[in-house]
Design brief:
- The complex is a heterotrimer.
- Chain A has one domain: ABC transporter involved in vitamin B12 uptake, BtuC, CATH 1.10.3470.
- By secondary structure, chain A is mainly α.
- By secondary structure, chain B is an alpha/beta fold.
- In chain B, the strands form five sheets. In chain B, strands 6-9-10-3-11-12 form a six-stranded mixed sheet, sandwiched between helices.
- In chain C, 74% of the residues lie in helices and 0% in strands.
- The chains are: A mainly alpha, B alpha/beta, C mainly alpha.
- The interface between A and B is medium-sized, with 21 and 26 residues.
C-alpha cells in the first residue's frame, strides 16, 4: 500500500510538473506538443549531472540535477519558441519533430558517451544507483518521500500565484486569450510567448528527470518517456488549464500509472485474470476517456495555436 | 501652446501596391469632437493606426501640443495620452472588467498584484463620467454597452487626453447610442479631445464640432458641422451626388414561397431561445427585410431557415413542401439560396480558387461531375468564367485566382453570382452590403431587386437603417428573438422603427 | 540577348510552385544531413565523412552489383510500407487533420494480418484486407472523437498508439515463437500468407522480399493523387479541411467527411504494415515497448514530399534509404540511430518549408521590383 502511495505521488509529481509546463505555454498562446521531447532532454540533462557530479553532497546534488534538467529543457524548448513564434511554423509538426528529435538525439549522445568510455558498451543507458539516494527526503517503512514531490508542490503553489496574482500572469494569459488586446495596451506578445514556452521547457525538463528517477536506477534513453508528455497534456485539459485542478487530475492519473508498477504486490489484483499489459494500457485508456468527456466544452485559451502577426489586426 | 491637441500633417502610408493614406492632414482641436468620415476603404482605419503607433507612415509628421512626436508603438501613443476604443473591442473575455482596465498598467506590491487603488480610481471615473460598470463581472457575461464603457474607462484610467472612437455605434442599440453621445459630449466638456470615426451622417451631425472627410485614401476637406448639411457631407464622402433612394417599381407579390410557423431556435449561449415562436411568410416577387439591432436572433433565424441549426420548435415549408427536417443540401436543391452573413466563415473556402468557390454548392451536379465521381474541370472553368464576366468579379488571375487574394467586394460579388445563378425560388441575403464600397452596394441592391422582379422571394437581413428603409417591400422587426412588428417602408419613420428595434414598442402581427 | 532570355526563363522556372517546393525540400535535406554530419563530427571527427557517405550509399556499400541490387530490393521492400504511412499522413493533413495515430493504425494492421496468417493460415489477400479494415477502424475512432467530441486528434492519436501497441503485443503473444519474443516466420508457418512476388524477385537478384507490395504502393500513391485532385470526393474533403464551416454551409456533411478521411488514412497505414510483415522481411517483437517508427517516419516523408502523393514516393524512398543506410555505418564508432536523428532534424526543418517558400517568393518579387 505504501508503495502504491509512493508511486502514485511520484508519478503525480511528474504529471503535475509537465502539465503545469503545458499550462504556461498554452496560456501564452502556444500549443506545446513537444513536451515529450522536452522531458527526454530534461532527463538527459539531469542524468548527465548525476553521472558527472556523483560526489557532490546530497543537497547540492539535487540542486545541480534540477539545474541541469532546467537548462536542457529550456534550451530545447527554444526550438519550439523560435519556430512557433517567429517563423509561424505549424505547431503540431514542430512538436512532433521535437519529440522524435529528443529521443534520437539523447540516444545518439548517450551511446557516444558510453562508447567513448568503453568501446564495447553500446547501450543507451545511464546508471545512477547511488546518486538516486540523494533524492530521498525521509522514509517511513516502505514509503519514501522524495524531494521531488516537495519540489512539485512548491512549484504548484508558485505557478498558481504567478498566474493569478502577478502582473506577469495577467499579461501572459491576455496573450493566450486575445493577443491583439494585449498588444494594444503595450504588452509585447512575442516576449510573453517566449516566456510561456521557456517556462514550459523548465517545468517539462524537471518533469523528465523526476520521471526517469521515479522507479528505476538506470535509464535507457532509446525508450523515450512513453507518451508521458501527452498524458500530461490530457491532465492539463482535464484540469481545465487551472493549476489547482491540474494537481487533482495529476494525482488521479498518477494512481493509474502507479497501478501498473505495483499491482502485482496486491494479492487481490494479482489474482485477477488481467494480463500485465492491460495495466500498462490503463493510463492511456483513462486519458482517452477523460479527453472524450472534457474536450467538448473546454476552456482552452482562445488564441492558442494561432501565430500572432503584428501586422494583422 | 497652440490650439491643437494633435496634428497629423501630410501623412502618406503605402501597402504593397496601394496607397492607403495619400497626403492626409488632420488637426484635432483641444476639447472638440472631431469626426472622421469616409467610406469603407477610404483610409480612416489606416490613419488611426498610424496615430496609434500600429503603423509607421512613409511620409508626414505628427505634432502633439505643437511639438513634433514619433509614435512607434501603442506604448508611445499611450505615453502621449492617446487612447482608442477599437471597433472590435480589445477585451479579454474571461477576465473581469477591472482586470481588463488595469492590463498593461498594473500596480504591484511585493511582486503581487495590488488592485485596491486601481479599483478606487476606476469607480471614481465611472461615477464622474456616468460610465456604469460592474468591476468584478467577467467581460463575457456583460452587455455590449458595458463592454464599451469598459473600453472608455480603460482610456480614462490611463489619463488619456485624446480619445479615438472607431465606429463606436455600430454595435449599440438606439438608446445606448444616445447615451454614448451624451458621454462623449461630457468628456469633451471636461477638456478631452475626441476623434470620432463614423460613416453615419446623423450621428456626426448630432455630436461633432468639425468633420474631416477622406475618400479613397485622399484628403477631401475639413468642415464645421454648423455650416454644413448631411447632403453636403455625403457628396464629399462619395465624390458625387448619391441618391439615397433605390429605384424600383412597386412589388407584385404572388404565391407564398416561404412559410414559417411558430419557429424556435435554441441558443448556444443562453438557456432562452435565440429565436422564439416566429411566424411569417415570404411571397414570390417581394423583398422582405428582417430589421433589428445586431444580436437579436437574426443570425439564428437564418441558421434555422438554411439548416445550419436545427429548429427546437415549429415548421418551415418551401413552395408548400415541409422542409423542417431536410438537410442543408436538400434545401439548397429545393430552391434555397443563401448569401451568408460572414463570407469568410461560411461563404467561401478562402484557400480555394475562385472557380472552385463558384461551384461550391453545385460541384456534385451531373453538369460538373461525371458518373465515375471525377470533376469535369473544363465545364467548371467555363461556368466560372461566364459568371465572372456576367457579375464583373475582378481578380488577379481570373478563374484560378486564390480567393483569399481578392478584395472583399469582389469576394462578395462572387458569392452573389453563385447564389443568384443557382436560380433559387427563395433567396436569403444577410447583410449583403457589409464591408463593400458604395459602387458595389448599388450593384447588390439592383441584383436583389432584379431577383424580386423575376418572381423570386427575397429575405433580406440588414442592420443598416438606410437599407431597411429603401430596399424591401415589407419590414419585419426582430427584438430579442421575436418578431415585434411588421410594416410597409412608407408607413413608418426611422425614429419609430428604432423604438420597435429597441423593444420600446411592439405590435402584434397582423 | 540570349543570356537574358535564359535568365528570364530561369526566373520563370523559379516562380513555379512545384520548383519552389522542390528547392525547399532539397534545402531541408541538406540542412538535415549537415546537422547529422556536425553531430558525427562532434562524436568522432575521424570517421564522420565516411559515416555520412555510408548512410547515403546504403546498398551501394556492396561493390558487387548483384549484391547491391539485392539490398536495393530490400530497401524498396521497406519503402513500400513507409510510402503507405506517408500517404496516410498527407491524406489526413490535406483535410486539416494531423494523423499522428498512423503508428497505432500500423501496429493494428500488423497485428491483425499476422494473427490471421499465423493462427488461421489465411491467404495473403485476406490478411491484407484485415489489416486495412483494422487500421481504418482505429483511424475512424480518432476521427469520430474529433468530429463529435472535439478531442484533439494528436493527443487522441498518441493515446491510441499506445493502446494499440499493447493490444497487439497481447494478441501476437498467442502466435509467437516459444523461444523468442518474435512472431513465427511466415515462410515456414504460413507460406500462403506471403505476398506473391509475381517474378519481381528475379529483377533484384532473387531477393524474395520483393513483392507486389512495391508496385501496389506506387499505384495507391497515384490513386491518392487522383482522388485528391480530380474527384468530387477530394474536392469535398479538401473543402472540409480548409474551412469546415463553409463546407457545412455548402451542404457537405463535414463530420462524416472528417471521419471518412481518418478511416481512409487509417486504411492506408494498416495496409502499410501488412506490406511489410506479409513480405516476410521482419517479424513482430511482442516485447516491443516503442510505438512503430514507421508512422513517424511517414510524417517526415509526407512533409519532405511537400504533401504531394507523387512527391511522397520519392521522399519515402529517401527517408528509407538513409534509415537503411544507417545500418552500414561503423558500429564501433557511431550508433545507427544517427539516421533517426537526421530524419528528425529533417522533420523539424520541414516545418519551416512555408517560411523558406515565403522567403524565396520575397526574394523573387524584390528582383522583379528592381528591374
Amino acid at each position: 500500500m505504501a508503495l502504491l502511495l509512493q508511486y502514485t505521488l511520484i508519478y503525480a509529481s511528474v504529471l503535475l510538473l509537465v502539465a503545469l509546463g503545458g499550462c504556461f505555454s498554452e496560456h501564452s498562446g502556444v500549443i506545446n506538443l513537444g513536451l515529450e521531447g522536452i522531458m527526454v532532454m530534461g532527463a538527459l540533462g539531469g542524468a548527465l549531472v548525476m553521472k558527472g557530479m556523483a560526489d557532490l553532497p546530497a543537497l547540492l546534488l539535487i540542486v545541480a540535477v534540477v539545474f541541469g534538467s532546467v537548462l536542457f529543457g529550456v534550451v530545447y524548448s527554444l526550438l519550439l519558441a523560435v519556430a512557433a513564434i517567429h517563423l509561424k511554423a505549424d505547431q503540431t509538426l514542430v512538436g512532433t519533430a521535437m519529440n522524435l528529435l529528443g529521443t534520437a538525439a539523447a540516444t545518439v549522445f548517450v551511446k557516444a558517451l558510453n562508447m567513448a568510455e568503453d568501446a564495447s558498451n553500446v547501450s543507451s543507458s545511464i546508471q545512477y544507483i547511488e546518486q538516486k539516494k540523494a533524492f530521498s527526503l525521509l522514509k517511513i517503512g516502505n514509503f519514501e518521500l522524495s524531494w521531488f514531490m516537495v519540489l512539485a508542490v512548491v512549484l504548484l503553489v508558485i505557478s498558481h500565484v504567478v498566474l493569478y496574482h502577478t502582473k506577469f500572469g495577467l499579461r501572459l494569459m491576455a496573450c493566450g486569450e486575445h493577443p491583439q488586446a494585449a498588444d494594444s495596451v503595450g504588452i509585447n506578445v512575442y516576449k510573453m510567448r517566449y516566456a510561456g514556452v521557456l517556462i514550459s521547457g523548465m517545468l517539462g525538463g524537471i518533469g523528465g528527470i523526476v520521471y526517469i528517477t521515479a522507479g528505476v536506477s538506470e535509464w535507457k534513453f532509446e525508450n523515450g518517456v512513453a507518451g508521458f508528455g501527452f498524458l500530461a497534456l490530457a491532465v492539463m485539459i482535464f484540469g481545465q488549464w487551472k493549476p489547482g485542478l491540474i494537481a487533482m487530475a495529476a494525482v488521479l492519473f498518477g494512481l493509474f500509472r502507479a497501478l501498473s508498477n505495483v499491482y502485482s504486490g496486491f494479492d487481490a489484483l494479482a489474482a485477477l485474470p488481467i494480463p500485465s499489459t492491460l495495466y500498462n494500457m490503463f493510463p492511456y485508456m483513462i486519458s482517452l476517456l477523460v479527453l472524450a468527456v472534457f474536450s467538448g466544452n473546454s476552456r482552452a485559451p482562445k488564441a492558442e495555436g494561432i501565430p500572432y502577426d503584428k501586422g494583422k489586426r | 501652446m497652440g490650439e491643437f491637441a494633435i496634428e497629423m500633417l501630410h501623412i502618406t502610408k503605402r501597402f504593397a501596391g496601394i496607397v492607403a493614406n495619400d497626403d492626409i492632414t488632420l488637426q484635432l482641436k483641444k476639447g472638440e469632437i472631431h469626426a472622421l468620415l469616409g467610406e469603407n476603404g477610404a483610409g480612416k482605419s489606416t490613419l488611426m493606426s498610424v496615430l496609434f503607433g500600429l503603423y509607421q507612415p512613409e511620409e508626414g509628421k505628427i505634432y502633439k501640443d505643437g511639438k513634433e512626436v514619433e509614435i512607434r508603438n501603442p506604448n508611445d501613443a499611450n505615453d502621449l495620452g492617446i487612447g482608442m476604443v477599437h471597433q472590435h473591442f480589445k477585451l479579454v473575455e474571461c477576465f473581469s472588467v477591472l482586470d481588463n482596465i488595469i492590463l498593461g498598467m498594473e500596480t504591484t506590491k511585493g511582486g503581487l498584484l495590488k488592485k485596491d487603488d486601481a479599483r478606487k480610481k476606476v469607480m471614481e471615473l465611472s461615477e464622474r463620467y456616468h460610465l456604469q460598470v460592474e468591476p468584478d463581472a467577467l467581460i463575457e457575461d456583460i452587455t455590449v454597452g458595458m463592454q464599451q464603457r469598459t473600453e472608455i474607462l480603460k482610456m480614462l484610467y490611463r489619463d488619456n487626453e485624446i480619445l479615438i472612437f472607431d465606429e463606436p455605434t455600430a454595435v449599440l442599440a438606439v438608446q445606448e447610442i444616445a447615451e454614448l453621445m451624451q458621454i462623449m459630449k461630457g468628456l469633451a466638456a471636461e477638456g478631452k479631445s475626441i476623434l470620432f470615426i463614423s460613416h453615419k451622417l446623423n450621428e456626426i451631425m448630432e455630436v461633432a464640432d468639425r468633420c474631416t472627410i477622406l475618400r479613397k485614401g485622399k484628403y477631401v476637406g475639413t468642415v464645421d458641422i454648423k455650416d454644413t448639411t448631411p447632403e453636403k457631407l455625403s457628396a464629399m464622402m462619395v465624390g458625387r451626388d448619391v441618391s439615397f433612394t433605390v429605384d424600383k417599381k412597386p412589388a407584385r407579390p404572388g404565391r407564398v414561397v416561404l412559410d414559417v410557423n411558430h419557429m424556435s431556435v435554441a441558443s448556444n449561449r443562453h438557456k432562452k431561445d435565440a429565436v422564439h415562436d416566429v411566424s411569417f411568410q415570404v411571397k414570390s416577387g417581394e423583398i422582405v427585410c428582417v430589421a433589428g439591432i445586431d444580436g437579436n436572433g437574426q443570425t439564428e433565424l437564418i441558421y434555422g431557415l438554411s439548416g445550419l441549426e436545427p429548429l427546437s420548435n415549429g415548421t418551415i415549408s418551401l413552395n408548400g413542401q415541409d422542409v423542417t427536417r431536410e438537410s442543408i443540401r436538400q434545401r439548397s436543391i429545393l430552391g434555397t439560396s443563401h448569401i451568408p452573413e460572414d463570407r469568410h466563415k461560411h461563404g467561401l473556402v478562402l484557400d480555394y480558387s475562385l472557380e472552385n468557390n463558384i461551384v461550391l454548392e453545385r460541384y456534385f451536379e451531373p453538369e460538373f461531375t461525371d458518373r465515375f465521381g471525377l470533376l469535369k474541370r473544363k465545364e467548371i472553368r467555363e461556368y466560372a468564367q461566364r459568371l465572372i464576366e456576367e457579375y464583373d468579379v475582378r481578380s488577379g488571375q481570373g478563374a484560378v485566382s486564390v480567393t483569399r487574394s481578392m478584395s472583399g467586394g469582389n469576394q462578395q460579388k462572387a458569392i452573389i453570382a453563385r447564389e443568384i445563378d443557382k436560380n433559387p425560388d427563395f433567396l436569403i441575403a444577410v447583410q449583403p452590403t457589409r464591408g463593400v464600397d458604395v459602387g458595389a452596394i448599388e450593384f447588390i441592391h439592383k441584383q436583389l431587386i432584379a431577383q424580386r422582379d423575376a418572381g423570386k422571394a427575397v429575405l433580406l437581413v440588414s442592420l443598416e437603417l438606410d437599407e431597411v428603409m429603401d430596399v424591401p417591400d415589407r419590414i419585419l422587426v426582430m427584438y430579442e428573438g421575436e418578431l415585434v412588428g411588421e410594416f410597409k417602408p412608407d408607413e413608418i419613420t426611422v425614429e419609430e422603427l428604432g423604438l420597435y428595434m429597441t423593444g420600446a414598442k411592439r405590435r402584434e402581427q397582423a | 540577348m540570349r543570356r537574358e532570355n535564359e535568365k528570364k526563363s530561369f526566373e520563370q522556372l523559379l516562380n513555379r510552385e512545384g520548383v519552389q517546393s522542390l528547392i525547399a525540400s532539397f534545402i531541408c535535406i541538406v540542412l538535415g544531413l549537415l546537422a547529422g554530419y556536425i553531430v558525427l563530427l562532434c562524436i568522432n571527427p575521424a570517421g564522420a565523412g565516411r559515416a555520412i557517405v555510408s548512410i547515403l550509399k546504403n546498398f551501394m556499400y556492396f561493390p558487387r552489383p548483384a549484391v547491391a541490387l539485392e539490398y536495393f530490393g530490400s530497401t524498396l521492400a521497406k519503402t513500400a510500407p513507409l510510402l503507405m504511412c506517408t500517404l496516410s499522413i498527407l491524406f489526413a493533413y490535406k483535410v486539416g487533420l494531423f494523423n499522428i495515430g498512423a503508428s497505432g493504425q500500423y501496429a493494428v494492421g500488423a497485428g491483425l494480418s499476422l494473427y490471421l496468417a499465423l493462427a488461421f493460415q489465411m491467404p495473403w489477400f485476406v490478411c491484407l484486407a484485415a489489416a486495412m479494415v483494422g487500421g481504418g477502424i482505429l483511424g475512424g475512432v480518432a476521427g469520430a472523437l474529433k468530429a463529435y467530441l472535439n478531442v484533439n486528434e494528436v493527443i487522441a492519436g498518441i493515446m491510441l498508439n499506445w493502446i494499440s501497441l499493447y493490444s497487439v503485443n497481447m494478441l501476437l503473444t498467442k502466435v509467437k515463437e516459444s523461444s523468442t519474443t518474435y512472431t513465427g516466420a511466415l515462410r515456414t508457418n504460413s507460406p500462403g500468407a506471403l505476398l506473391p512476388s509475381m517474378g519481381l524477385a528475379g529483377l533484384f537478384s532473387g531477393n524474395k522480399y520483393v513483392t507486389i507490395a512495391i508496385p501496389l504502393s506506387v499505384l495507391i500513391a497515384v490513386w491518392v493523387f487522383v482522388v485528391m485532385e480530380k474527384t468530387k470526393l477530394g474536392y469535398e474533403l479538401k473543402a472540409t479541411g480548409l474551412n469546415k464551416n463553409a463546407a457545412k454551409y455548402a451542404g457537405m456533411k463535414e463530420k462524416r467527411n472528417m471521419i471518412l478521411t481518418m478511416v481512409i488514412s487509417g486504411c492506408l497505414s494498416g495496409l502499410g504494415a501488412a506490406f511489410l510483415y506479409l513480405s516476410g522481411i521482419e517479424q513482430w517483437s511482442c516485447a516491443q515497448t516503442a510505438v512503430p517508427a514507421m508512422g513517424f517516419n511517414g510524417i517526415a516523408a509526407a512533409f519532405l514530399g511537400m504533401l504531394h502523393p507523387i512527391g511522397g514516393i520519392f521522399s519515402a524512398y529517401f527517408i528509407q534509404h538513409i534509415t537503411s543506410g544507417g545500418s552500414y555505418i561503423d558500429k564501433m564508432v557511431y550508433c545507427s540511430q544517427i539516421s533517426d536523428l537526421i530524419s528528425a532534424i529533417i522533420i523539424y526543418f520541414c516545418s519551416f518549408v512555408l517560411f523558406f517558400k515565403v522567403c524565396m517568393k520575397r526574394q523573387l518579387s524584390k528582383k522583379k521590383g528592381g528591374q
